Amino acid sequence: MRLTIRDIQTMYTDGEPLVMLTAYDATSARVAEAAGVPMILVGDTLGMVIQGHVNPVPVTLEHEIYHCEIVVRTTERPFIVGDMPFMTYSISTEQAMTNAARIMQEAGASAVKMEGGEWLAPTIKRVVQAGIPVMGHIGLMPQSVNKIGGFRLQGKDVASARQLLHDAAAIQEAGAFALVLESIPAPLAQMVTEELHIPTIGIGAGPHCDGQVQVFHDILGLFEDFIPRHTKQYAKLGEAMREAIEHYVDDVRSRSFPTAENSFTMKEEVLAELRADRLKNGASH
Ligand code: KIV
Q1: What letter would DSSP give residue 262?
Q2: Shared domain check, 58 and 196
Q3: Which of 39, 121, 226, 283 is the most exposed place for a label (fewest CB within 10 A)?
Q4: How many domains does the chain have?
């Protein structure tokens, strides 16, 4: 049975650290579920790790629905959060409601996530009122990377830290059930976490958040362009995959793959008839 928002709330009130991991396809979703991940985010990081872009801006609603539907269909238990892509919820409240509804109905997500502070609160309020659970996302908001000029730590000075505290309160007040805090100083994340009564889920926000989220490819060493400081590589799968494929290439080139073990045979009498045909037709070998 799929976990519900009440299960997530119970984990939070019981003081159980919330674990969220991204997944984008059947393989990553099944592995995450088998490892016991209770919350999967079909993040717009798919723009980088699946589509090969430098940021999530090119990801469309159709892309998100496509990946989210796969993750929902191939898992049974995790609570699935569908990320709302760039400009799919910021033009108007109506636009946000229509597009959030598509992620819920067409992909079957358990909730949606939106990036934005106080300015987004009225939209979140309406979407929640309509029956769609919303996870907020403040701090570094990768969809705004063109505005801020890169993936940078946020909330470093007094003014921006105050604004972030303000944003967090507004998102909670609007009815969000959880809040992602991305790339902010750990003491600030701790303050936000202490002030809210909804769970904070950190990425690059230190150890005091109620939960953590990481990108599948980062923790498994599959994204090798660089290692973000906020992540920890629990495996070097990129390296392992490369080595395995090199072996395959060598085996094919040296004709040591496939062997009889990887091949299929056929009945002797069928083969005999085929050989006879070839002799009749004048085949020389
Ligand atoms: O898109 C994503 O994967 C995210 C996480 C990094 C929080 O928003």
Answers
A1: G
A2: yes
A3: 226
A4: 2
